[in-house]
């Protein structure tokens, strides 16, 4: 039972990590777009 709980926790952490990475890429992209637009 404990193994299942641990692996679920790990996969949700992995998901969060991927999600944060996606967000960083998006934020970077929008920041670039914004600076280009402002020029």
TrEMBL record:
<protein>
    <submittedName>
        <fullName>7275_t:CDS:1</fullName>
    </submittedName>
</protein>
């Amino acid at each position: 039972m404990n193994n299942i709980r641990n692996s679920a926790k790990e996969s949700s952490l992995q998901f969060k990590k991927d999600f944060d990475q996606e967000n960083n890429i998006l934020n970077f992209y929008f920041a670039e777009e914004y600076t280009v637009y402002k020029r």
